[in-house]
Write a structure and sequence with these properties.
Number of helices: 9
Largest sheet: 7 strands, mixed
Structural class: alpha/beta
Distance between the termini: 40 Å
Strand order of the largest sheet: 3-2-1-4-5-7-6
Shape: globular
Number of strands: 7
Strand content: 15-25%
Length: 270
Protein backbone atom coordinates (compact mmCIF):
# COMPACT_ATOMS: atom_id res chain seq x y z
CA UNK A 1 0.00 0.00 0.00
CA UNK A 2 1.18 3.51 -0.65
CA UNK A 3 0.23 7.11 -0.19
CA UNK A 4 -2.65 8.01 -2.53
CA UNK A 5 -0.57 9.85 -5.13
CA UNK A 6 2.21 7.28 -4.99
CA UNK A 7 -0.26 4.40 -5.22
CA UNK A 8 -1.94 5.82 -8.29
CA UNK A 9 1.41 6.70 -9.87
CA UNK A 10 3.25 3.44 -9.30
CA UNK A 11 0.40 0.93 -9.15
CA UNK A 12 -1.69 1.24 -12.27
CA UNK A 13 -3.52 -1.83 -13.55
CA UNK A 14 -0.52 -3.22 -15.43
CA UNK A 15 1.89 -2.51 -12.57
CA UNK A 16 -0.45 -4.13 -10.05
CA UNK A 17 -0.64 -7.32 -12.11
CA UNK A 18 3.12 -7.46 -12.60
CA UNK A 19 3.64 -6.93 -8.87
CA UNK A 20 1.29 -9.80 -8.07
CA UNK A 21 2.96 -12.17 -10.56
CA UNK A 22 6.53 -11.47 -9.43
CA UNK A 23 7.78 -14.66 -7.75
CA UNK A 24 10.28 -12.77 -5.59
CA UNK A 25 7.57 -10.42 -4.33
CA UNK A 26 5.28 -13.36 -3.61
CA UNK A 27 8.01 -15.12 -1.63
CA UNK A 28 8.85 -12.05 0.47
CA UNK A 29 5.15 -11.34 1.15
CA UNK A 30 4.59 -14.93 2.23
CA UNK A 31 7.52 -14.90 4.63
CA UNK A 32 6.64 -11.54 6.13
CA UNK A 33 2.97 -12.44 6.53
CA UNK A 34 3.69 -15.79 8.15
CA UNK A 35 6.09 -14.09 10.56
CA UNK A 36 3.55 -11.35 11.34
CA UNK A 37 0.90 -13.98 12.07
CA UNK A 38 3.33 -15.78 14.35
CA UNK A 39 4.01 -12.55 16.23
CA UNK A 40 0.27 -12.01 16.71
CA UNK A 41 0.39 -15.02 19.06
CA UNK A 42 -3.19 -16.05 18.27
CA UNK A 43 -4.71 -18.91 20.28
CA UNK A 44 -4.23 -22.33 18.68
CA UNK A 45 -7.07 -23.93 16.72
CA UNK A 46 -9.15 -20.76 16.47
CA UNK A 47 -10.50 -18.91 13.46
CA UNK A 48 -9.72 -15.24 14.05
CA UNK A 49 -11.03 -12.18 12.23
CA UNK A 50 -8.02 -10.09 11.20
CA UNK A 51 -7.55 -6.68 9.61
CA UNK A 52 -4.99 -6.47 6.78
CA UNK A 53 -3.84 -2.85 6.61
CA UNK A 54 -2.52 -2.05 3.14
CA UNK A 55 -3.71 -5.38 1.73
CA UNK A 56 -2.78 -4.57 -1.88
CA UNK A 57 -3.65 -7.36 -4.28
CA UNK A 58 -4.31 -9.85 -1.49
CA UNK A 59 -0.97 -11.69 -1.35
CA UNK A 60 -0.82 -11.39 2.44
CA UNK A 61 -4.52 -12.22 2.65
CA UNK A 62 -3.93 -15.55 0.92
CA UNK A 63 -1.52 -16.53 3.67
CA UNK A 64 -4.07 -15.47 6.30
CA UNK A 65 -6.70 -17.64 4.60
CA UNK A 66 -4.36 -20.63 4.37
CA UNK A 67 -3.79 -20.44 8.11
CA UNK A 68 -7.53 -20.74 8.68
CA UNK A 69 -8.45 -17.14 9.51
CA UNK A 70 -10.91 -14.66 8.06
CA UNK A 71 -9.81 -11.18 7.08
CA UNK A 72 -10.82 -7.73 5.97
CA UNK A 73 -8.38 -5.72 3.88
CA UNK A 74 -8.07 -2.00 3.22
CA UNK A 75 -5.88 -0.27 0.64
CA UNK A 76 -5.71 3.07 -1.16
CA UNK A 77 -4.87 1.72 -4.62
CA UNK A 78 -7.90 0.92 -6.82
CA UNK A 79 -5.66 -0.98 -9.24
CA UNK A 80 -4.28 -3.25 -6.52
CA UNK A 81 -7.76 -3.94 -5.14
CA UNK A 82 -9.00 -4.59 -8.66
CA UNK A 83 -6.29 -7.22 -9.06
CA UNK A 84 -7.37 -8.75 -5.74
CA UNK A 85 -10.92 -9.03 -7.06
CA UNK A 86 -9.70 -10.64 -10.28
CA UNK A 87 -7.80 -13.18 -8.20
CA UNK A 88 -10.95 -13.90 -6.16
CA UNK A 89 -9.33 -13.56 -2.75
CA UNK A 90 -11.33 -14.90 0.18
CA UNK A 91 -11.23 -11.73 2.26
CA UNK A 92 -13.48 -8.68 2.14
CA UNK A 93 -11.65 -5.63 0.76
CA UNK A 94 -12.32 -1.91 0.79
CA UNK A 95 -10.82 1.22 -0.74
CA UNK A 96 -9.54 3.44 2.05
CA UNK A 97 -6.70 5.75 3.07
CA UNK A 98 -5.21 4.35 6.27
CA UNK A 99 -4.02 7.85 7.15
CA UNK A 100 -7.67 8.73 7.71
CA UNK A 101 -8.11 5.96 10.24
CA UNK A 102 -9.67 2.53 10.57
CA UNK A 103 -13.45 2.84 9.97
CA UNK A 104 -14.71 -0.16 11.94
CA UNK A 105 -16.67 -0.65 15.12
CA UNK A 106 -14.96 -1.00 18.48
CA UNK A 107 -13.49 -4.40 19.33
CA UNK A 108 -14.29 -5.88 15.92
CA UNK A 109 -10.96 -7.56 15.15
CA UNK A 110 -8.95 -10.26 16.90
CA UNK A 111 -5.73 -8.83 15.50
CA UNK A 112 -4.24 -6.83 12.64
CA UNK A 113 -1.24 -7.12 10.35
CA UNK A 114 0.35 -4.76 7.87
CA UNK A 115 3.06 -5.70 5.38
CA UNK A 116 5.21 -2.92 3.90
CA UNK A 117 2.62 -0.16 4.21
CA UNK A 118 2.88 2.08 7.26
CA UNK A 119 6.15 3.74 6.20
CA UNK A 120 4.28 5.59 3.44
CA UNK A 121 2.49 7.67 6.06
CA UNK A 122 5.84 9.23 6.94
CA UNK A 123 5.73 11.25 3.71
CA UNK A 124 3.67 14.37 3.01
CA UNK A 125 2.84 14.79 -0.68
CA UNK A 126 0.40 17.62 -0.02
CA UNK A 127 0.21 20.44 2.51
CA UNK A 128 -2.80 18.71 4.10
CA UNK A 129 -0.84 15.61 5.01
CA UNK A 130 0.86 15.82 8.40
CA UNK A 131 2.72 12.53 8.98
CA UNK A 132 2.48 12.58 12.77
CA UNK A 133 -1.27 13.31 12.70
CA UNK A 134 -1.98 10.67 10.07
CA UNK A 135 -0.01 8.03 11.95
CA UNK A 136 -1.75 8.89 15.21
CA UNK A 137 -5.14 8.71 13.49
CA UNK A 138 -4.33 5.25 12.18
CA UNK A 139 -3.10 3.90 15.51
CA UNK A 140 -5.81 5.56 17.60
CA UNK A 141 -8.66 4.13 15.53
CA UNK A 142 -6.91 0.77 15.19
CA UNK A 143 -6.58 0.52 18.97
CA UNK A 144 -10.32 1.02 19.30
CA UNK A 145 -11.17 -1.56 16.63
CA UNK A 146 -9.14 -4.33 18.27
CA UNK A 147 -10.45 -6.64 20.97
CA UNK A 148 -8.73 -6.17 24.32
CA UNK A 149 -5.66 -8.31 24.74
CA UNK A 150 -5.11 -8.63 20.99
CA UNK A 151 -2.12 -7.47 18.97
CA UNK A 152 -1.24 -5.66 15.76
CA UNK A 153 1.97 -6.35 13.85
CA UNK A 154 3.42 -3.94 11.30
CA UNK A 155 6.28 -5.01 9.04
CA UNK A 156 7.80 -1.95 7.41
CA UNK A 157 10.83 -0.57 5.59
CA UNK A 158 11.93 2.70 7.20
CA UNK A 159 14.13 5.09 5.26
CA UNK A 160 15.93 6.22 8.40
CA UNK A 161 15.88 6.12 12.22
CA UNK A 162 13.69 9.23 12.34
CA UNK A 163 10.87 7.38 10.61
CA UNK A 164 11.17 4.50 13.05
CA UNK A 165 10.96 6.89 15.99
CA UNK A 166 7.99 8.71 14.47
CA UNK A 167 6.01 5.53 13.85
CA UNK A 168 6.74 3.99 17.24
CA UNK A 169 6.04 7.21 19.17
CA UNK A 170 2.63 7.72 17.56
CA UNK A 171 1.65 4.12 18.24
CA UNK A 172 2.54 4.46 21.91
CA UNK A 173 0.75 7.79 22.10
CA UNK A 174 -2.40 6.03 20.87
CA UNK A 175 -2.31 3.67 23.84
CA UNK A 176 -0.43 0.64 22.56
CA UNK A 177 2.40 -1.06 24.40
CA UNK A 178 5.08 -3.17 22.76
CA UNK A 179 8.02 -2.31 20.54
CA UNK A 180 10.27 -3.42 17.71
CA UNK A 181 11.25 -6.98 16.83
CA UNK A 182 14.12 -7.17 14.34
CA UNK A 183 14.74 -10.41 12.44
CA UNK A 184 18.19 -11.14 11.01
CA UNK A 185 19.67 -7.82 12.21
CA UNK A 186 23.12 -8.60 10.79
CA UNK A 187 21.93 -9.35 7.26
CA UNK A 188 21.60 -6.51 4.76
CA UNK A 189 19.17 -8.50 2.58
CA UNK A 190 17.14 -10.56 5.04
CA UNK A 191 16.76 -7.98 7.82
CA UNK A 192 13.11 -7.28 8.61
CA UNK A 193 11.60 -4.87 11.13
CA UNK A 194 8.29 -5.62 12.87
CA UNK A 195 6.43 -3.30 15.20
CA UNK A 196 4.54 -5.52 17.64
CA UNK A 197 1.73 -3.60 19.34
CA UNK A 198 -0.31 -4.86 22.29
CA UNK A 199 -3.68 -3.58 23.49
CA UNK A 200 -3.42 -4.77 27.05
CA UNK A 201 -0.74 -5.48 29.59
CA UNK A 202 2.99 -5.20 29.17
CA UNK A 203 4.04 -8.69 28.20
CA UNK A 204 7.58 -9.37 26.98
CA UNK A 205 8.36 -8.87 23.32
CA UNK A 206 9.20 -11.93 21.23
CA UNK A 207 12.83 -12.40 20.26
CA UNK A 208 13.97 -11.58 16.75
CA UNK A 209 15.17 -14.35 14.46
CA UNK A 210 18.92 -14.72 14.10
CA UNK A 211 21.20 -15.92 11.32
CA UNK A 212 21.22 -14.82 7.69
CA UNK A 213 17.60 -15.63 6.84
CA UNK A 214 18.60 -17.80 3.92
CA UNK A 215 16.71 -20.98 4.83
CA UNK A 216 13.24 -21.42 3.37
CA UNK A 217 10.91 -23.58 5.39
CA UNK A 218 9.09 -26.54 3.90
CA UNK A 219 5.66 -24.93 4.17
CA UNK A 220 6.68 -22.03 1.96
CA UNK A 221 8.24 -24.38 -0.58
CA UNK A 222 5.11 -26.50 -0.77
CA UNK A 223 2.89 -23.45 -1.19
CA UNK A 224 5.05 -22.05 -4.01
CA UNK A 225 4.91 -25.39 -5.80
CA UNK A 226 1.14 -25.49 -5.41
CA UNK A 227 0.77 -21.94 -6.77
CA UNK A 228 3.00 -22.84 -9.74
CA UNK A 229 0.72 -25.76 -10.52
CA UNK A 230 -2.35 -23.56 -10.36
CA UNK A 231 -0.83 -20.87 -12.59
CA UNK A 232 0.53 -23.37 -15.11
CA UNK A 233 -2.81 -25.18 -15.33
CA UNK A 234 -1.47 -28.55 -14.17
CA UNK A 235 -3.93 -28.59 -11.28
CA UNK A 236 -7.52 -28.96 -12.58
CA UNK A 237 -9.45 -25.76 -12.12
CA UNK A 238 -12.43 -27.65 -10.71
CA UNK A 239 -10.30 -29.15 -7.91
CA UNK A 240 -8.95 -25.71 -7.03
CA UNK A 241 -12.46 -24.24 -6.96
CA UNK A 242 -13.74 -27.05 -4.73
CA UNK A 243 -10.88 -26.52 -2.27
CA UNK A 244 -11.60 -22.81 -2.13
CA UNK A 245 -15.34 -23.35 -1.62
CA UNK A 246 -14.68 -25.81 1.20
CA UNK A 247 -12.47 -23.22 2.97
CA UNK A 248 -15.24 -20.66 2.71
CA UNK A 249 -17.82 -23.11 4.10
CA UNK A 250 -15.60 -23.77 7.12
CA UNK A 251 -15.44 -20.01 7.67
CA UNK A 252 -19.23 -19.83 7.70
CA UNK A 253 -19.50 -17.94 4.42
CA UNK A 254 -22.25 -18.39 1.86
CA UNK A 255 -21.12 -20.58 -1.03
CA UNK A 256 -22.93 -21.55 -4.22
CA UNK A 257 -24.01 -25.18 -4.51
CA UNK A 258 -21.71 -27.55 -6.38
CA UNK A 259 -22.83 -28.71 -9.79
CA UNK A 260 -21.50 -30.43 -12.89
CA UNK A 261 -20.80 -26.97 -14.30
CA UNK A 262 -18.43 -25.90 -11.49
CA UNK A 263 -15.05 -25.04 -12.99
CA UNK A 264 -16.18 -25.72 -16.55
CA UNK A 265 -14.93 -23.26 -19.16
CA UNK A 266 -17.69 -21.07 -20.55
CA UNK A 267 -18.44 -21.12 -24.23
CA UNK A 268 -17.18 -18.14 -26.21
CA UNK A 269 -20.59 -17.83 -27.85
CA UNK A 270 -24.10 -17.69 -26.43
Amino acid sequence: MAHKNQANKYYGVDEARKYTQNTRVIEVQEKCTERALELLALPDDTCALLLDIGCGSGLSGETITEQGHMWVGMDISPAMLGTALEREVDGDIMLADIGQGVPFRAGMFDGAISISAVQWLCYADTSNHKPAKRLYKLFMTLFASLSRGSRAVFQFYPENDSQVELIVSQAMRAGFTGGLVVDYPNSSKAKKIYLVLMTGGGGPLPSGLQGDGGNNNQALYQRRERMKQIRSGRQPKRAWIMQKKERRRKQGKEVRLDSKYSGRKRSDKF
